[in-house]
Amino acid sequence: MGPKKRFERELDENGGPASPPQWTCLPRWYLWDGGFLILGSSVGVVPAHHHHAIQIVIACSGHVSARAERGDWRSAPGIAILPNVVHSYSARGTTAAMIFVDPESVEGGWIRHSLREDITLLPEERIHSCREGLIRIVESPIDAPDPSDIVQHCVQKICRGARPYRRLDPRVTRVLAEIRQSDEPRMSVEEAAARVFLSPSRFAHLFKQQLGLPFRRYMLWRKLTRSMIVIGREQSITQAAYAAGFADGAHMTRTFHQMFGLAPSVMMRGEFFEIPSPFELQDSSTLAG
Known about the structure:
Blueprint: H1 3-6, E1 22-23, E2 28-32, E3 35-43, E4 45-49, E5 54-59, E6 64-68, E7 74-76, E8 78-81, E9 87-90, E10 95-101, H2 106-114, E11 119-122, H3 124-139, H4 147-158, H5 170-181, H6 189-195, H7 200-211, H8 215-234, H9 237-243, H10 249-260, H11 264-267, E12 271-274
Parallel strand pairs: 2-12
Antiparallel strand pairs: 1-3, 2-3, 3-10, 4-9, 5-8, 5-10, 6-7, 6-9, 8-11
Helix pairs in contact: 3-4, 6-7, 8-9, 8-10
């Protein structure tokens, strides 16, 4: 049963009906095209959902909790969730950082290579230095280190082993780069295939083989993260929907529900800051050819 069907019977950690999620303080958002960092505290359960990004959650104190679609609640100081894994989430009222990492980035590949479970519990010793930097942003954002540097540090502390050599097919790399650089977030699989001189079916197969998800779902994620940046600038869901290439606000709201378990009107509150992407698409030495 998919996450949308599970919403009405979501249970909390005690087995009772889950309370709807709500912020207990205004969060701070650090947005880039393809991912983001949220710092805030909330109560209630975010119902079952799944998305393209790797999700890392680090509690500034105490524990946070998550569970898979068919599983029990599990708690830890930090949690890492692989892409497209159906999960529910509870911050348990603590202040926490939530980082969404592009899986197609070098760091995204490193995380996936490092984690053995769909949902990995991160012990205190693995995230202690991450907590220190995140708490500095919460308590004194003006004097804190650059958020991009902190995000990179948190990701690297979670990874294991040497940074892997990673080379995407140059045709996929070219399309990904054009999507990132374009102000127009609409590109069909037919348009993408034509840009690299492949048939739509061959390109669709290659893209899914390389990134692990269909091209159309990837574009939906890019549109969603683009809409979040516009919401941060304009505070308007309708304007964000059109700017990101959704048919209308209702279409964007349905996509938010599917990928985050929440409507944008519930989720997108707080202070917003745009930062450069902390992650590389792939090693610079592999971009040629």
